[in-house]
Design brief:
alpha+beta; five-stranded parallel sheet; APAF1_C; ATP-binding; cytoplasm; repeat; WD40_repeat_dom_sf
């Protein structure tokens, strides 16, 4: 310290010891970094105030110039103006070295101006916020040529004061705008007498250096002080800046309305409205970003941000980056560096009193700073603010919700909210209309802590006010403000302890319908999971029924137009409460003429899926579990990455990740990051918590990147990628670096997949060159190479077997890979093949994954199926059916309890491993026939074990089940008297069996290839069959006599039997484009019509026999005259193969359906187009009907049309509008059987489920 400064302290020592309170001054000096916490503690250990003052001066005398200046500024800030005057004349100048350390590069002249003006020195720990700083300076430059106000506003602890002080540490700003100086005054909450003291202090400082005369006496009133300041600022400091820190009310601010240039910090945004002059505003964000906040903590503990413990991020997250809280905790950690977990717990437990002052902040603890803001409100407004204790973190609430809560007019609510916003007690999101409001996490935590004993009552008030306002009717779903109620009403009921109201709400199909339509099924599922404990006390079975209904139908509820929830619910078990409510609704609506279908045999058809999600518009190429199993990530053709909860499918994060298809995604071992790779040749790393891009790796791959995978353990985290590159197709990356760490050479063709061994020692790569290679991770050298192609003897050198993927056994001793339709298990050490598992020859294995805790292997197949195999015994254990297209990926959860699969059908299905594993039900095939007799139904169909089943009654009970047939059954039929069934097989054999005994009555041979269709005549004595061998055979089956109808040159898929009293004619059609008419009595061909250039796909004859229609792969339909045997109408307009047709019963209309899912209705009077059905939007399968329109039927009154495709739809034949949709569990429906009265409908879907649907009649239960 300079000698003159030291001498001044010694001269003034007695006076200073007598008057100062050391504890007040040391707060500022600790903040300036000139006094340590230990020194502060030693001073405070003295028993009396005078001894503390003496001890402080002793410490000061051993320090440098910076300490003297800091002590001087502290005296001014604590209103010891007369004592500061004693030191003013001997203020030292900083040396260049000291200046750099003290002012961080601010010039000497600027530092001198700031010191004299009492501007606080920069905190010991300071992190710059350049965007905010530049914004404040930009507003200050606006005061260059005019007086006015710059208001810096924000909530408590947001860093307003620090940034205001930092803004004036700028040489150019002071030189150009404020050459007269900068004067800082801390105002705070103060009575009028305290305000006068502060104004006197400021006047004293402004008058320093003037001669002592009468004008120097302190002003005696606020008004006199105001006039004194006006005179001083106008005459002595005409171009200076007055900084008023922490102003609370307008009356205080008006005392400084002296036509000067003022920078104001406050929590009340509207404060400057009470003064005259130009006004500018600068909002201060309530929190720092994570990077800045971690930097502050690191500076406090003398470390690096990346080296901080995990708790550091949690602390920043918990306080939302509040500069105050981060600084308070940082200062505490500087003294107690091992208390990270302790202070995190205090934050989480809302123990704000434990986070106490350790800086120059004006309040002893965080809760005091919060409470100070509340005390400025009027008492009634304090009560309204208390009601906000029930808000949730990060939830923005519209004013209309608070209108309901407070029972006020909307304008009154908006006025109250405006006051809260102006005082920084509440935040407003102006990006939404109407405005939405929210609390900072710290404000909400403080409110909850303050009102802990009243929280339940406040939630109850919210629920009662809602009930009174909406009067038991749910809010209008079209009102954006109603979203809050649909999202949070169950939350308020649960917090209020209103369990009865919660049961009534959550066990209501009406609530499910309304909420699902607005928010989707995932939010609802999450409610049943979150409040399951409460709901289970009422009825756990009902809770599970509603949860299962939503889990299995969620993908339908994502569709637009929104499906009929009542119809979806009618697919539930008859024992389900969901079904009971749906049936009541359906019966009531059926009385008003609406159409509903009851799946009467549903109890026999349980779904094995636990959850069905529809995360993307487009194929889902990959999905994976997080390491803790709580989240699922998915990616696909829509270029997006999506994260959602495993329990409910609720979306957590969605972002556009790449410019092209995203082919793979992978969680890091700690679940903090997720990597994505794409056909755009880029690899990116994302933050799971924030959804922000952490790193885009260098574009070292030149072709699309097929797969990415992190190491399994946290010891040495690496990311592997593989691509279609010729040489550099496998790379290892350190996630902290943008360039690759290693490249693994060996494959000369695309590498499709890569995966680390369980202990991360090896990396397995699967390539299109037909090999599986194992590389050492440490050295990146090739360790083993297995020629998988050699296990396919039929392969040639040019067409190698592509190795799609590989997976490791849990113990790491076996490596399993997939190629073509096979899966191989190899011993890692010897490379010997241990097992081979062959799937269907008609399918290819797309992916495989081994269970982490068992010998189960999941295999994804191109024929829409997931199979489970035991890779130790080479036996298939189960099939998971439900996907409607290729399955691209399968993966077990980390604990092996769940299995997910993703598909081209845009869905992800979640399966319970044990439930699927133990299921052994045989699925029916679609080659069925049905007999309707009075109220009974008889169904005949083959099953997946190639047995013939005959089922009867509306429940689908098995009447008869045959032994397994060696050749595959391809068609079935049943006689009119239900005593015989016939079947045709793949080898051309036809068999007739007795029902119900199952005894083979006759075996008919003659066809040389697959029998595609068979049918008994009405009397049951004749059986007609058509075949791949191009012939139709007419059998007198009891005798074995056969009439062969020869003429077609291509397979005959089907025929139509015409019977009347005078003749027996048969229409047959074929892929050869012809329709032939036969006389069944003699076998003569009566007519041979060349109808189409492409294959004839269907044919129908009008009920009066005058017309018949044909449809073709040539995209046309034709109508023919049965009298003239010539074409009457050519029907064009379909854009795909026309696969089905049907005349109405009055022969006035023809319906045609194509492979694009489009149905057209035509007039048979002139061949004109009447209507196009389902023209609004395509569904998830890029079709108007979920697939090909395979069958059509009119009702007897010709008013309704039923159609099959990917699901079943009923249409108004008059308007072409859809009347109802029934979503089957599987797609690709082949046909539907309709009862004569149009009340019963029977079909089998593509995964073997039988549907007996009955029309719901009006009435009551």
């Amino acid at each position: 310290m300079e000698e003159r400064a030291r001498s001044c302290l010694l001269r003034s020592k007695a006076t200073l010891e007598q008057d100062i309170k050391a504890s007040y001054l040391m707060d500022h000096m600790v903040s300036d970094g000139v006094l340590t916490n230990d020194e502060e503690a030693r001073v405070l250990s003295k028993p009396t105030r005078k001894e503390q003052a003496a001890a402080l001066l002793e410490v000061l005398l051993r320090k440098d110039n910076r300490a003297y200046i800091s002590f001087y500024n502290a005296l001014i800030r604590e209103s010891y103006g007369d004592l500061a005057n004693l030191l003013h004349s001997d203020l030292p100048l900083l040396s260049p070295e000291g200046e750099r350390s003290f002012a961080d590069g601010v010039s000497h002249s600027v530092q001198a101006i700031l010191s004299e003006g009492g501007v606080p020195q920069r905190p010991v720990v300071f992190v710059n916020r350049p965007t905010l700083l530049n914004l404040i300076r930009e507003k200050l430059y606006r005061l260059k040529n005019t007086t006015g106000w710059v208001t810096v506003f924000g909530m408590a602890g947001s860093g307003k004061s620090v940034m205001a002080a930092e803004a004036v540490r700028d040489h150019a700003l002071i030189k150009e705008c404020f050459p007269g100086g900068v004067h800082w005054l801390s105002v705070g909450q103060c009575e009028r007498a305290d305000l006068l003291v502060r104004m006197q202090s400021l006047c004293f400082r402004l008058e320093q250096g003037q001669s002592l005369d009468a004008s120097q006496r302190p002003p005696c009133s606020v008004e006199e002080a105001k006039e004194r300041m006006r005179f001083l600022m106008l005459r002595r400091f005409p171009r200076s800046l007055l900084i008023l820190d922490d102003v609370w009310d307008s009356s205080t601010l008006r005392s400084f309305d002296i036509q000067s240039r003022v920078l104001l910090t406050t929590r009340n945004r509207g404060l400057a409205d009470s003064v005259s002059g130009t006004r500018f505003e600068v909002p201060v964000e309530s929190g720092l970003d994570e990077e800045k906040a971690l930097e502050i903590l690191a500076l406090y503990v003398n470390g690096k941000p990346q080296k901080l413990p995990e708790q550091a991020r949690s602390i920043v997250s918990e306080c939302k980056g509040s500069p105050l809280v981060v600084s308070l905790i940082g200062a505490l950690l500087r003294e107690f560096p091992d208390r990270w977990s302790y202070y995190l717990r205090q934050l989480q437990k809302k123990q704000f009193k434990r986070i106490r002052k350790s800086s120059s902040y004006d309040y002893d603890a965080l809760d005091q700073a919060m409470d100070a803001s509340l005390q400025v409100l009027e008492p009634e407004h304090q009560d309204l603010y208390r009601d906000l204790s029930i808000m949730q973190k990060d939830v923005k609430v519209p004013a209309k919700v608070l209108l309901v809560l407070w029972g006020l007019e909307l304008e009154e609510v908006e006025d109250v909210l405006q006051e809260f916003v102006n005082k920084s007690l509440l935040f407003r999101d102006c990006n939404q209309r109407p405005y939405h409001y929210y609390l900072h996490d710290l404000q909400l935590d403080f409110l909850i802590e303050q009102n802990r004993d009243q929280i339940a009552e406040l939630h109850k008030k919210m629920v009662r006010q809602y009930q009174q306002f909406y009067n038991e009717r749910p809010p209008n779903s079209g009102d954006i403000d109603s979203l809050y109620w649909y999202r949070f009403l169950p939350y308020h009921m649960a917090k209020a302890g209103l369990s009865k109201e919660l049961y009534s709400l959550m066990f209501s199909l009406d609530w499910v319908k309304e909420k699902a339509q607005i928010m989707g099924s995932a939010h609802l599922i999450n409610d049943y999971v979150e409040y399951g404990e409460i709901l289970d006390k009422e009825n756990s079975e009902v809770r599970l029924q509603f949860q299962e209904f939503l889990s299995l139908n969620g993908h339908h509820l994502e569709q637009r137009p929104f499906p009929d929830v009542v119809q979806l619910a009618l697919s539930q078990s008859a024992r389900s409460e969901v079904y009971r409510q749906a049936l009541m609704h359906a019966q009531k609506r059926a009385s008003r003429g609406q159409l509903y279908l009851d799946w009467v045999n549903t109890n026999n058809e349980d779904s094995l899926s636990r959850l069905v999600m529809h995360p993307h518009q487009g194929s889902v190429y990959y999905a994976c579990f997080s390491k803790d199993g709580s989240k699922i990530a998915s990616c696909g053709a829509n270029k997006a990455l999506r994260l959602f909860k495993t329990t409910s499918g609720e979306k957590l994060l969605e972002l556009q990740a790449h410019d092209e298809d995203v082919l793979c995604c992978a969680f890091s071992p700690d679940d903090r990051y997720i990597a994505t790779c794409s056909s755009d040749r880029k690899v990116k790393l994302w933050s799971v918590e924030r959804g922000t891009l952490i790193r885009e790796f260098a574009e070292e791959h030149e072709e699309q990147i097929n797969h990415c995978q992190f190491t399994n353990t946290r010891q040495r985290v690496l990311l592997a990628t593989c691509s279609n590159d010729t040489f550099t197709n496998t790379k290892l990356w350190n996630p902290n670096k943008s360039t690759s760490q290693n490249t693994m050479f060996g494959h000369m063709e695309p590498v499709n997949h890569c995966c680390f061994s369980p202990n991360d020692t090896y990396l397995a790569t699967s390539s299109s060159d037909g090999t599986l290679k194992l590389f050492e991770v440490q050295s990146a050298n090739e360790w083993k190479s297995i020629d998988v192609n050699s296990f396919f003897p039929e392969s040639d050198d040019e067409i190698k077997a592509i190795v799609k993927c590989s997976t490791w056994s849990a113990d790491g001793l076996r490596i399993i890979c997939a190629a073509r339709n096979a899966v191989f298990v190899f011993d890692v050490e010897t490379s010997d093949m241990l097992l081979e598992m062959k799937t269907s020859r008609l399918s290819t294995v797309q992916y495989c994954h081994a269970c982490p805790n068992s010998s189960l292997l999941a295999v994804a197949l191109s024929h829409y199926t997931v199979e489970l195999w035991n890779f130790e015994t080479s036996k298939k254990k189960a099939e998971c059916n439900g996907h409607l297209s290729w399955v691209h990926c399968v993966q077990f959860s980390p604990d092996g309890s769940l299995l997910l699969s993703s598909s081209d059908d845009q869905t992800i299905r979640l399966w319970e491993t044990d439930r699927v594993h133990t299921s052994s039900a045989a699925a029916l095939k679609r080659d069925s026939d049905v007999l309707f007799s009075q109220s009974d139904v008889t169904i005949v169909a083959p099953d997946s074990r190639n047995r013939l089943q005959v089922r009867t009654g509306s429940t689908g009970a098995v009447l008869f089940e045959s032994e397994e047939f060696p050749p595959r059954i391809r068609c079935t039929c049943i006689s009119r008297n239900a005593t015989f069934v016939a079947l045709g097989t793949e080898d051309g054999t036809v068999q007739v069996l007795e029902v119900p005994s199952g005894k083979t009555s006759l075996k008919l041979t003659g066809h040389t290839r697959t029998v595609h269709h068979c049918q008994f005549t009405d009397d049951g004595e004749t059986l007609i069959t058509s075949s791949e061998d191009t012939t139709v055979r007419v059998w007198k089956w009891r005798t074995g006599d056969c009439l062969v109808l020869v003429g077609h040159t291509e397979p005959v898929r089907k025929f139509h039997l015409l019977s009347n009293s005078s003749s027996h004619h048969l229409f047959s059609w074929s892929f050869d484009g012809t329709v032939k008419v036969w006389d069944l009595n003699g076998g003569q061909m009566l007519h041979n019509l060349e109808c189409h250039k492409g294959a004839v796909l269907s044919c129908d004859v009008s009920s009066d026999g005058c017309l018949f229609a044909t449809t073709s792969a040539d995209r046309t339909a034709k109508v023919w005259s049965s009298a003239l045997w010539e074409m009457t109408f050519l029907l064009t307009g379909h854009t795909d193969c026309v696969r089905s047709c049907r005349f109405s019963w009055d022969s006035k209309r023809l319906a045609t359906g194509d492979d694009n899912g489009e149905i057209r209705l035509w007039s048979m009077l002139d061949g004109s187009l009447l209507k196009i059905c389902s023209r609004d939007t395509k569904d998830s399968m890029d079709s108007f009907h979920g697939g090909w329109v395979s069958d059509l039927h009119f009702s007897p009154d010709n008013r309704i049309l039923v159609s099959t495709g990917g699901y079943i739809k009923w249409w108004s034949a008059e308007t072409g509008e859809a009347l109802q949709t029934f979503y089957t569990m599987g797609a690709n429906l082949k046909k539907i059987h309709v009862s004569p009265d149009f009340t019963t409908f029977v079909t089998v879907d593509g995964i073997g489920h039988l549907y007996v649907l009955k029309k719901v009649e009006g009435g009551s239960l």
